[in-house]
Amino acid sequence: MKIPHSIPNNVFEAYRCSYETTRLSSEKERVLRSEDVLWDVDRVPSLRTLALHVLAVAWKDNHPIMEDLPTSEDRDKLIEILPVDLPFELTIRKIEEEHYWERCSRDKWETNELADHGNSWRRRYCEGVFCEYLESLEPSFFESQREECEKMIGLVRNYVHAIRIRSLRPTRKQKSLDEGDDPCHAEEDIVHHIPMALVLPKLPRLAEIYVNFGVIYMNDGFEWRDFQFSIEDCLELGEAVKACPKLTKFTLCKSSLDQPRVAALLQGMVANNNVVEIDFSHCKLADKGAFAIGEFLSMHNLQVLRLVNNDIGPRGVAGLVHGLLKKEPELRHLDLRLNPLLDEGVMHLCAYLLRTDRLEILNLSGCGIKADGGAALCEVLRSGCNLKTFKLDVSNNDFGKPVGEMFEAAFKSIPFIVRFDARMCNFSAQSEYSIYESILR
């Protein structure tokens, strides 16, 4: 007897006999065992069960039967035995039961983080299949695949809320010159990818985008051009973001995103005021790229900005702060980890802290800050900021013991600090313990 998927496993476990109970003499002589799910293994299946197996085998060839079945038990049984390799264009229209999409997802992928997909197995499968489809598209021949792409979008458009593209194929490399050809006539080998402006706006419920320009499987050998992308790609992506009214989060990490490319990307993004979170971590923005983002911040109500490991120095931070102070600050979370801000960069951030009451999280871990920058940050926090709640991470900066004593004394009278991470800052053990106790209070 197979337990239906509609009954949680915890229900069966609640009625399972304990090991001690099964060893009782009265239990050994009991004939009827209702908790035994294998009692009918050797019995001939019922006619109804055989009929359902026939329907499952011939489901895609005949008219798909689901609602025509007389009872819900029959429908549940059919969902449990339907093959998971049925044509997607057929199942997405005819099957709504989550259990079937759970079976399909577990059969296709080893890892399924359902929380990342709104706790919906149908959405998880549609988003996964669609992302893999986009990753497999050949940009050099996109026009010939455009009709097929639009058909695929039509199938999943109501179920895709987030896109996580791990890799994108680049255009094919142009042929090398033959001997005797004039090198002046050679065309520049510019790497392009599929036009996102023709794909993403057709997804009306799209709320999150994660894109990585690069490849993860080197089937044809390694080339640096596989990790490059053009300014035209950024313009296309910016126009796509502009046309997605429900988009709130955008992530482009681990790429060669520099100042010209981020400027082209932000041209379109600035028109979409619904985007509240941007992540450009582990790119190549440097100071000039930070200037472009600062100009974007002066025209947009961004709330979360992550710029981890982008080689942003003091001049770049000055550009960010200048853009933030051009209008009423709305930023709540700023992550500048692993950037060489130095003491001068912290001075610019201190000026921003004195003028905002919205910032809640600031991460300056591993930014090369010394004692002068740490002392300035401590003085600003003690001088009476307008912050309501504040989480600060300054770990892995060489502040020294005197700065640790300054933070220890300051935090005894600062009520808005709810988290402070100062690991590997060369504070004394007494200062670290006192700071921890002050934050707990």
What does this structure look like?
With 441 residues, the protein is an alpha/beta fold. It contains 17 helices and nine strands. It has a nine-stranded parallel β-sheet. The chain has helices spanning 9-15, 19-22, 25-28, 47-57, 72-81, 88-94, 98-108, 121-136, 142-156, 231-242, 259-269, 286-297, 314-324, 342-353, 371-382, 401-410, 429-440; strands spanning 162-165, 208-211, 249-252, 277-279, 304-306, 333-335, 361-363, 390-393, 417-421. The chain is flat, with a radius of gyration of 29 Å. The chain starts with 8 loop residues before the first helix and ends with a helix.
CATH class of the domain at 117-172 and 189-275: Alpha Beta
Instruction: List unreliable stretches of 5+ residues.
Output: none
The biggest beta sheet reads:
9 strands, parallel
Beta-strand residue fraction:
5-15%
In angstroms, what separates the terminal alpha carbons?
A: 58 Å
- Number of DSSP strand runs: 9
Q: Which structural category fits the helices and strands? A: alpha/beta
Global geometry = flat
- Helix share, percent: 40-55%
Mean pLDDT: 88
Which strand order does the major sheet show? 1-2-3-4-5-6-7-8-9
Radius of gyration: 29 Å
Overall CATH architecture of the domain at 117-172 and 189-275: Alpha-Beta Horseshoe
Q: How many helical elements?
A: 17
* SSE topology string: HHHHHHHHHEEHEHEHEHEHEHEHEH
The CATH topology name of the domain at 117-172 and 189-275 reads Leucine-rich repeat, LRR (right-handed beta-alpha superhelix)
